[in-house]
């Protein structure tokens, strides 16, 4: 049993994950800097030692600071870490931004990780998928299935709350880190994903976090409009004229045509901006 986990149920799930990883004999962990993949990397290193490697994909769709977080987590765990440069924007299937965009992103990633695995003589590629992920529409899971990726947390019966509890018990600093999906997820389906749009979104989110200290944040891109979503309990951080003015001025300078704040707050499945969606409060229009 990994030290620190006291719950018998969670300990049992963790041991199942250990056994799944041990059977692989050598693994490459897709480390996104989130808590799920970080827990897998921790267990993999604790189980296999040098027969485990973490790999993080660097691309225009990665949120600012996430690559540095991944490096820090790998160092914290003690696992070997490699950075792979992916070029999903060069794939028209990806940049077209259909509802299956994530499939092409993950397909590109797993091809790169297979090359790393083969180079180092590793048997398997692992990801951080857990049971709660199955409730979402995630085309990337199909790409993982086709690539033969193994999901130890899923197979061991982990849910998100289990992941966070285990990560906290094992001393992982990211145990309470909010989810940070790729920047392309901020662009409405059907709108072409470009490096410029991703840069605008990434800079906008980075600026808003530094200004307000907000934890849960999305800046959605809709035909030039920026729609800001924050955790419902963090909306009060924006209820200040000076803060709103500063945010609007910065985002307009980045190239957004207008800036709104969604009064309902962040939702995991946000609706695209439409004439019927009347809950977005304009901060400023130009």
Shape: globular
Query: What is the residue-averaged pLDDT?
Result: 91
Instruction: Kindly estimate the percentage of residues that lie in beta strands according to DSSP.
Output: 15-25%
Number of E-type strands: 8
Low-confidence stretches: 270-282
- In the sheet with the most strands, the strands line up as 3-2-1-4
What's the CATH class label of the largest domain? Answer: Alpha Beta
Strand count, sense and barrel status of the largest sheet are:
4 strands, parallel
Nearest-angstrom radius of gyration? 20 Å
- CATH topology descriptor of the largest domain: Rossmann fold
In which range does the helix fraction lie?
A: 40-55%
CATH architecture of the largest domain: 3-Layer(aba) Sandwich
Number of helices: 10
- Structurally, the number of domains stands at 2
Topology order in helix (H) and strand (E) letters = HEHEHEHHEHHHHEEHEE
Write the layout of secondary structure elements.
Elements: H1 8-24, E1 27-30, H2 35-48, E2 52-58, H3 66-77, E3 80-85, H4 92-95, H5 101-119, E4 124-126, H6 139-146, H7 152-155, H8 160-169, H9 195-212, E5 217-222, E6 225-230, H10 241-254, E7 258-262, E8 280-285
Parallel strand pairs: 1-2, 1-4, 2-3, 6-7
Antiparallel strand pairs: 5-6, 7-8
Helix pairs in contact: 1-2, 2-3, 2-8, 5-6, 9-10
How would you portray this structure in words?
- The protein has 286 residues and is an alpha/beta fold.
- The chain has 2 domains: 8-169, HUPs (Rossmann fold), CATH 3.40.50.620; 194-285, 2-Layer Sandwich (Alpha-Beta Plaits).
- 42% of the residues lie in helices and 15% in strands.
- The chain has a 4-stranded parallel β-sheet, sandwiched between helices. A 4-stranded mixed β-sheet has the order 5-6-7-8, covered by helices on one side.
- Helix 2 (35-48) links the parallel strand 1 (27-30) and strand 2.
- Helix 1 packs across helix 2 (35-48).
- It is globular and about 55 Å long.
- 40% of the residues are buried.
């Amino acid at each position: 049993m990994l030290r620190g986990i006291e719950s018998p149920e969670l300990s049992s799930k963790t041991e199942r994950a250990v056994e799944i990883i041990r059977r692989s004999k050598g693994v490459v962990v897709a480390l996104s800097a989130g808590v799920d993949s970080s827990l897998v990397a921790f267990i993999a290193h604790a189980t296999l030692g040098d027969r485990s490697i973490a790999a993080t994909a660097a691309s225009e769709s990665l949120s600012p600071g996430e690559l540095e977080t991944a490096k820090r987590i790998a160092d914290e765990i003690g696992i070997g870490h490699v950075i792979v440069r992916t070029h999903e924007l060069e794939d028209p299937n990806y940049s077209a931004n259909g509802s299956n965009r994530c499939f092409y992103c993950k397909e590109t990633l797993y091809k790169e990780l297979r090359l790393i695995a083969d180079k180092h003589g590793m048997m398997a590629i692992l990801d951080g998928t857990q049971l709660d992920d199955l409730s979402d529409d995630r085309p990337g899971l199909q790409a993982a299935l086709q690539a033969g990726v193994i999901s130890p947390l899923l197979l061991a019966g982990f849910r998100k709350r289990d992941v966070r509890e285990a990560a906290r018990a094992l001393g992982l600093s990211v145990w309470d880190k909010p989810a940070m999906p790729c920047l392309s997820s901020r662009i409405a389906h059907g709108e072409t994903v470009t490096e410029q749009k991703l840069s605008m979104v990434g800079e906008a989110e980075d600026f808003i976090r530094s200004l307000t200290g907000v934890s849960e944040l999305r800046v959605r891109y809709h035909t030039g409009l920026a729609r800001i979503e924050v955790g419902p309990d963090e909306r009060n951080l924006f209820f200040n004229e000076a803060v709103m003015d500063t945010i609007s001025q910065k985002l307009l300078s980045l190239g957004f045509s207008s800036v709104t704040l969604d009064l309902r707050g962040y939702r995991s499945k946000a609706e695209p901006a439409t004439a019927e969606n009347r809950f977005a409060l304009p901060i400023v229009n130009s």
